[in-house]
Design a protein that fits this description.
- It is built from six helices and no strands.
- With about 180 residues, it is mostly helical.
Length: about 180
């Protein structure tokens, strides 16, 4: 398989993982766990097309362990802390994929804005996870509103990232056509 096809498959599976993240299934029992498993499997499939070294595999493994321990030990962590830790592990995974995407952009001399988008994504997710750490000490109405606002912010950040990855995929396909016809 050529390098460009591997990169396109990497972007395809990363897009699938981000699409799975758009659905917020925390309201259904155990649906969130299934969603996280599918996201981690899509990320692993995406990493199978990358030949370099990255820490994303380690972060995905940490996410698996966090997920399995929470299922097996009958909610060892509170729902709040499990949500915060899951969001932070997902942030680390996405940041590692951002580094991979920046390498791809440099390879094709595409003037992408991945670095800027990843920086905004990082600050949004960090601020939301910091707010969610205070959920146990506030009233129920404020807790629900913080959860909703945080979920909407993360949803918007994921949609922006998804559109960026799709446009990068189109740019790589265009670069493939230019090479084929020249």
């Amino acid at each position: 398989m050529s390098e460009k096809h591997r990169q396109l498959n990497l972007l395809k599976w990363l897009t699938i993982a981000l699409c799975l993240k758009l659905v917020f299934l925390n309201v259904f029992p155990y649906a969130f766990y299934v969603q996280q498993l599918l996201i981690y499997f899509a990320c692993m499939k995406s990493l199978s097309y990358f030949k370099g070294k990255t820490l994303a595999k380690h972060y995905i493994f940490i996410g698996f362990i966090l997920l399995i321990t929470n299922i097996v030990t009958s909610h060892l962590l509170t729902i709040t802390w499990h949500l915060v830790l899951t969001v932070i592990v997902d942030l680390l995974i996405i940041l590692e994929f951002g580094k991979i995407i920046v390498e791809i952009e440099k390879h094709y001399n595409i003037l992408g804005s991945t670095h800027r988008i990843m920086k905004k994504y990082m600050w949004i997710v960090l601020s939301v996870s910091a707010c969610w750490t205070f959920l146990m000490n506030i009233e129920y109405d404020a807790m629900v509103s913080l959860l909703i606002v945080g979920a909407v912010l993360i949803l918007i950040a994921n949609i922006r990232l998804l559109f960026h990855f799709r446009s990068l995929k189109k740019d790589i396909k265009l670069a493939m056509r230019v090479v084929m016809y020249s």
